[in-house]
Amino acid sequence: MTFSVSQLSTVESLLRDAARREIIPRFRNLADGSVRTKSGPLDLVTEADVAAEALITAGLRQAFPGCVVVGEEAATDDPSILKGLVGADLAFVVDPVDGTANFASGLTLFGVMAAAIVRGEVVASVIHDPMGDDSAMAVRGEGAWIETPDGKRRDLRVAAPAPANRMAGNVAWRFLPEPRKSTVCANLPKMGGVWDYRCSAHEYRMVAAGHCHFLFFNRLYPWDHAPGWLLHREAGGYGMQLDGTSYDPTRTDAGLICAPDRESWQAVRDTLLGVGG
After folding, report:
1. What average pLDDT is seen over the chain?
2. Which among 45, 78, 83, 158 would be 20 to 30 A from 93, CA to CA?
3. Closest by Cα among 139, 137, 219 to 174
4. Could you tell me the pLDDT band of residue 36, with boundaries at 50, 70 and 90?
5. Which of 155, 179, 211 finishes a domain?
6. Domains: count for the chain
7. Does residue 107 sit in the same domain as residue 9?
8. Could you tell me the residue range of the domain that residue 147 belongs to?
9. pLDDT score of 1
């Protein structure tokens, strides 16, 4: 089964509609008691997450009968639904509000993400920016682009390769186990520049557009990374798990580096993890 640009436009419309109806009206307007903590102080869920995911899930099931939908909030409540990604003819992963900690803090760095997965292969993705009201989109083998509501498109392309000490990017080190966490943190100054926006939606949009060189992640929930990994790949980038194997949306513990090309990927890995780390 392939996935067409037309089908992706349907998915994108569902994400934009959810943002307009359920997310933007609650931005900087959350009711008392509408934010709760999940696994830690920066792992939050709001009423916007829950309402947007319900709307998107219902829309996907109507538009693609028989599909499997794995939303972040549903999977938090019932982790067993992640097994539905394995072997499904068509599955979707959905992150209704990526960057919830930013959203709940009134910061504008948050997004809405979805990816289509066919028998384990990520084939299409959307990362919608509710504040800018545009979407970064990709279809496997057909490139990546930014699309505005009036249909205008701008192709995405990753940055040119550079030496490690001249590459800038995002490093999400918080979930690394020791001693790897200490090793990576000690090596951060060896890169050209490092930050963490607490929002993979915008981090992937940045790297796919060439506004930074690399991304480094450890914990890989599919709703956080399947959309962005494909966007980066279709923009010409090279993204592999930390052990050098291909990205697998069914694995959550493999780590991921995205860079302009294979040599840059190796340079980021060698620098941050230590050669052979």
Report:
1. 94
2. 158
3. 219
4. low
5. 155
6. 2
7. yes
8. 5-155
9. 65
102 φψ region: left (φ > 0), alpha (ψ -120 to 50), beta (else): alpha
**pLDDT tens for residues 54-84?**
999 999 999 999 999 999 999 988 999 999 9
DSSP 83: G
Query: Are 19 and 52 within 8 A, CB to CB?
Result: yes
Same-domain status, 115 and 219: no
Side chain identity, residue 236: G
Do 34 and 68 lie in one domain? The reply is yes
Instruction: For residues 231 and 237, give the distance between their C-alpha atoms in angstroms, rounded to a whole number.
Output: 9
CA dist 277 → 179, 240, 271 (Å): 11, 15, 9
User: Are 46 and 100 a contacting pair, CB within 8 Å?
Assistant: yes
Nearest Cα to Cα of residue 39 among 79, 85, 83, 84: 79
Task: Record the tokens describing residue 263, joined without a space.
Answer: 């040599």
Q: What is the pLDDT of residues 188-240, one digit of tens each?
A: 999 999 999 999 999 999 999 999 999 999 999 999 999 999 999 999 999 99
Residue 264 sits in a domain whose CATH number is 3.40.190.80
Q: Are residues 148 and 173 in the same domain?
A: no
Query: Is residue 121 classed exposed, middle or buried when 0-12, 13-18 and 19+ CB atoms within 10 A define those classes?
Result: middle
pLDDT digits (tens, 9 = 90+) for 127-165: 999 999 999 999 999 999 999 999 899 999 999 999 999
Q: Which residues of 195-225 are buried (b: 16+ CB within 10 A; e: fewer)?
A: eebbbbbbbbbbbbbbebbbbbbbebbbbbb
Q: Could you give the CA distance from residue 84 to residue 33 in angstroms, rounded to a whole number? A: 32
Mark residue 28 as left, alpha or beta (left: phi above 0; alpha: psi -120 to 50; beta: remaining).
left
